[in-house]
């Protein structure tokens, strides 16, 4: 176990004023790694950081976020909170080592599973229990993230391959100035194994990455329900540029945690293709989440194949059509999207009395769509120079 060695090297580097902690070629087993100000964790080619499968190696609990709700839980495997100038770089591999018998089995029956703890955490948030009293960790079953940078400024993740996280792979939260560049996420089998999920972050660049995931490739989030309203922290100014999306529920997704609001999202020059990639562009929320999604711009995206709708905007996520916090979703502009084969081009589902507003699609081609589109409770839909199955619509 190299946990103490990582801890000592990071502390010494930080004490010296910052710099690079070098991980040479080889395989290193460790528990949680906590980064410090002005420290770059650099993995040389041939280096693999392999994380322990023992939950005890991620204690004591830390302040973290689970599916949009703050709590005290197992430490993310690579973690920093309140730090400035932190980086994870190099050509090596960060391996969470999760599998069907470690971490992933907490996601579903048979017990022990995360279900009861998810309900308990949600009720604590609704009742306003202070975060410091929402203590999970040992004896509980809420899975940690592989990489989570929390309330950090100036974050760089570049070059590395990450794989087999307990759940979300890369999860910046409440961060400013985040760059994720030339990263490969190879985690196609795990439940909720999202690729990169910036949540309540401002000024984010995700470029030239490759995603092969067990859930959404990129999912932009902003907190959930009562806890999201308490923090009221949006995600804004997010650019996803020149990425390749393979397996996953969605290529570029917003939600389902939208409570703090999401705006000014740009997705350019991306390639998405797989018989298992369900949707290319997806917005998902519901009347319990609330918040807003607006000023979303997608252009020059190629989707060779998708397993569901190419473009989905669904305000009834989890089949919830009514509630006290209707989301405000609109001003979505999609240009020069080309899709080869999929069941349908569009699944656009608003709420009764709360429609999707102002979706515009221009200069786009959907070549082989097997079924009719689904469009309900939508206003201001503009299709200009759009072709479906060889016909202009």
UniProtKB/TrEMBL annotation:
GO terms for biological process: carbohydrate metabolic process. GO terms for molecular function: polygalacturonase activity. SMART domains: PbH1. The keyword Hydrolase applies. It comes from the Bacteria. Belongs to the glycosyl hydrolase 28 family. Keywords: Glycosidase, Hydrolase. This is Glycoside hydrolase family 28 protein. The keyword Hydrolase applies.
